[in-house]
Each structure stands twice: as C-alpha cells, then as structure tokens.
Amino acid sequence: MGHCLCERFQDVKLALEEQQNQVAQLSEAVEQERRTCAQLRQQLDGDHTQHQAQLSREQSHVSELRVQLESAQAQSRELESALKWERERHAHLIQQQQQQQSAAQGAAEDRCRQEEEGAYSVDTHLQTLQSQLDEKHSRVVQLVGEVEKQKLEVVQARLEWEEERQAGQHSQEALRKAQEQLRNLQSRVQELQRQLDREKQQSFQLRQEREQLQDHVSQLQGSTEALQHSTKTGQWKVEGEPSKRTRDWVLQQKITEVDSSTTSLRELTGAITATTDPKLMETVINQLQLICNKIKSMTSSTAGRVSVEEVDSASLAWLQNSVQSVVSLLQQAPELSPAPQNTAPPAQGSSSNSLTERLLRQNAELTGFVSSITEEKNDLRNSLIKLEEELRHHRQRGLGLGKYSGRKAADNQDSGVLLVPDHEAWNREKSRLEKCLRQAEMEVSRLRAELRADSLRDIVSTDTDNAALKRMYGKYLRSESFRKALIYQKKYLLLLLGGFQDCEEATLSLIARMGGRSSHNLETNIQRPRGFTRFRSAVRVSIALSRMRYLVKRWQRSTGAGSSSSSAVNRNGLSQITGNEGRTESPYLHAGSVDVYAERRGTSRGRTGRESPRSSLSAQNRFNTAAAETGSIACSHLQNYDPDRALTDYISRLEALQRRLGSVQSMASLVIVAERQAGT
Predict the structure, then answer these.
(1) Based on the number of CB atoms within 10 Å of its own CB, is 657 exposed (0-12), middle (13-18) or buried (19 or more)?
(2) Which of 254, 228, 252, 194 is nearest to 311 (CA)?
(3) 396 and 384 Cβ atoms separated by less than 8 Å
(4) For residue 270, which of 285, 288, 289, 291 has the smallest C-alpha distance?
(5) Residue ranges of the domains in the chain?
(6) Residues 393-442: pLDDT tens digits?
(7) Helix, strand or coil for residue 214?
C-alpha cells in the first residue's frame, strides 16, 4: 500500500509538474497573446484614428444629407408625438374601460400592440423617407454638377464675348484711322487746290504785266525812232526864236518819254530781280541805269546849245540798239510778279542842244552794253528753266498729279484738266471708304445685339438655377425651424410634466382634503408595483390636463381673451402664447397650450409623412413665428422657474377652482373611485 501510494504520489507529482509546465506554457501563451492583443490594440487605435479622420471627412460630406435627415426625423418625431397622443388617448380610454370593467385590459393591450405595429409601420415609413432623402441627395449632387457645368459655359461665353468685343474695338480703331487718313487727304487736296488757284492767279497777273511791259517797250521804240528820224531829217535853223523854242520843246518831250520808259524798265527789272537771281539781274539794272544817265547827259548837253545839229546820230543809234536789246531780253524773260507802276516825275525842261549832246555821248556807251545784256539774257533764261524744273518737281512731289511741261501758260491751262481724273478717283475712294465704314458699323451693331441676347440668355438661365437653389434653401430653413420648434416644444412639455410630478403629492393631498380622504393612503402607494405607479401617474396627468383645459377655457371666456388667442391660431391649429400672457401667467398655467398642441396632434394624426405643397408653402410663416415665440417662451420659463412659487400658485388656483365649481365633492369622489378601481 505504501508503494502504491508512493507511485500514486509520483504520478500525481508528475502530473502536477506537467500541469505546471502546461500552466507555464499557457501563461507564456497568454503573455504572448497579451502582447499580440496590445499590438492589435495599438493597431486598432491607429485604425480608429484613421477611421475618425475619415469619419470627420465623411461627416463634412454628409452634412447636407444630415440636414434633410433631420427634417425627416422631425416628421418622424411628429409621428411619434402623434403616437404618444394616441397612446395617451388609449390610456385614457383604458381608464374609462377599467371604471366599467376590468376585463377590457386585454383588449387595451391588443390595441397597444396594434399601436406598436403602427410604430413599426412608422419605422418603415422612416426608411422610405430615408430612401427618398438619399434620392434627394443624389438629385442635389446632380443639380450641383449641372450648376458647375452651366457656370463653366457662362465663363466660356464671357471669354468669347470679350474676344468679340476686342475684335470690334480693333475694327473701330481701323475705321477711325481710315477716317483720319481720309480727312487728311481731303485737307491736303483742298490745300493743293488753293495753291493751284493762287498759282493760276499769279500767272495771269504776270501775263498781264508782261503785256503792259511789251506795250511800254513798243512805245519806247516808237519814241526812239521818232527822235532819230527827227535828228536825221530835221532842219534846225538859228534864226527865229519861236521855231527854236518849238523844236526844243518837242525834243524835251521825247526825252521825257524816253526817261519815263527807262524808269519803268528799271522798275520792271527790279521786279525781275525779286523772282530771279539777284547777281544776274544786277548787271541789267546797271545797264539800264547807264542808259538813263546817257539820256540825261544828252539832255543836259543839248540844253545850252543854240541848235541841235550837233547831236550825234551814232549816240541815238546806240541808244536805240540798247533799248531793242533790253526789249528782246524782257520778251524772253520769265513770268514776273506784279510790280507797282510808279510814274517818274517829269524831268526839268531843257533845250534841245543839251539833249542832243547827251544822246551823242551815251550812244557809244549803250552800244558797249548790248553784248553784256545779251549774255545776261541767256543767263536769265537758263535760271528761268531751272526754276521751272524746281517748280515742276515740287508740284509732282506734293500732289502726285502728273508731270507739268513747264511751258508757262500751256502748263497752267492743262493743270486743271489733269486734276479732274484725280478728283474723280479721290471721290470714288471716299465713297468706297464710307461704304466700308457703314458696313463695319452695321456689323458692330449686329455683334452688340448678339452679345446682349447672349447675356440675357445667361442671366435668365442663372436666374432659374438661383430660383431652384433658393427654393431648396428655403425648404431647408423651414425644416430646420420646424426641428427647432419641436425641440423647444418637447423641452416645454418635459418642463410641464416635471412640474406636475413635483406638485403631484401636494395636489393629491389637497384633493384628498377636498374629498374628506386621509392622506395616509397616499403614502402606502409607494410600495405599489412600478407599472401600476406609471399607469397611475399617466392617469393623473390626463386628469390634470383635462381639468387645466377646462380651467383655461373658463378663464378665456371670463376675460374675453378668446378672440385674441383664436387670432393667433394658424391653419394647423397651433396657438401661440402672446407676450402679455407669458409675462402675467405662471409657467404651469400654460397647460392649455399643451392641450392645444395635443389637439393639433390629434387633428393631424391622419396625415401622412409627406406634406402637401400648400402646407410646405405655409410652413415658413408657421415656423418662423411659432418657433421663435415658443422657443422664447420656453427659454423664459426655464430661466424663471421657481418650484415653490409654482406650487403656491398652483394650489391657489386649485382653491379658486374649488370656489368656482359647485360640484367639487363629486369630482373628488370620482377620483377616489378611479383610484380604487386601479388598485383592484
């Protein structure tokens, strides 16, 4: 036996060691699992942070969906409130049925089950609303994409309009430049026309002056020939003083005519000097001065003589030849500018003897100057040709009208004929440019009209998009205000229910004192079951609500506030509490408003989850006013809540109700019967 025990002990020891080894292995495995779990926990924390970040991103993405979901939840809350009202009504009916018979509780439970089934149907309806919300979200995303696409199209159209406007500005600049060039050409043409008229007038005056000068020269030649003829054939007699005086007077008259002709020639030569080279014309002036001096010397030499026979015929011939050479030079001279015709004063009378002597002395001098005058004539002709070439060159460069021949009168007469085709070409070019200008203006006006039409189309399309977005935003605001109004109403109802719960014992004690029932039984109800207590509380709340409803109606009829309160009721039956009522009445006096809210829920319990267009349109006014006033009243009630004051006010009002009503005892007995039935 001892050996067996030892073996067993050894076996147990071995088994224990094996178990210890297994335990150690398991502990190591557990430690390893713990480490693995810690690693997994760390990895899970990292994944959690990543998921949190992703969730925050998704929350920002789903914020729009949440708004619509909140509106659907508000509708679901409305349905839940309707369900609660139905449940309360069901509880009230159950209370009435319990007063008649207790067997109706099973039917009530069935009805509650049906209500739960209705709640399940509400959940299904919420699911359908969620699906509709998803569809609306997809529609919103699609609309946003379309809006972005339309914005891109608007930007592209605006860029195209800017390009077309710049092209129109370039075309207007080109037209403006063309108009300026046309005006410059017209002014240039007018200036050249005036210059051509001046040149024609100047050439005409020069031709007249040349003819006058030729007449003067011919007269001078005639007078010179007459003087020479008189010197050759005249018979001068010494005897007879009257005949001497007559001959001297005739000779003096002829010399005076020659002197005047010489003076006119000198003035004409001065005019030629103004239009030609002064160096070349200076010699001609000197020669004419010599001729004049010669004639004067001949006149002075013949003044003291007795007869004129001594007058040298060679001097007269030299004088005649000099005058003829000057005349030929002037005939070949260029056109001259008008010069003033001044008549020389008549020389002093002298005798014919002095005139003859002067003519004889100056005749030789005039003969020497004939050759020099001929050379100067050739020089003047060459200078005149050069001046004509320069004038032709300037005309060709300024007008571009063609070439002039440079032939005095013929060129001046042909210049008008040459300008006619150029004027016609300019008129044609002007008409063509004006036509192009009108076409460009028409094109610009057409482009402007198209741009205006495009801008109007863009504005109309953007207005429609903005109207759709505004409608959606208005729906969102209405749903948000509806949600806030429901929250404020829920808080207010919870506050009222809490107040009723606080003053429940005092109210029941007062009712017991009214009915002659001791308050000891109220304390024994604390040991009742929880379900019974909950049911009793619901019954008492319903009774209090009905009594408060009756109280509010009586008070409205007595104070005449029914009209003002009824005017504040909207189409859904939701009455708003005015500011005066909220300030003067206690927070617990507004159970009537709770009952009115319950009545609105009762009247709207037959409605579906979808609102009609009319209700959706009126929702803005309904919740903009109701939510603000109800929220402000609820907040003021929460801030100004005083339990002691509320309880005192409630008890005083119950006592006033006791004084007003004559059947207080009967009401108390009804309450006692109801409690007894509930207890049984």
Answers:
(1) middle
(2) 228
(3) no
(4) 285
(5) 191-409, 479-679
(6) 766 766 654 444 455 455 555 555 556 666 777 778 778 777 877 887 78
(7) helix
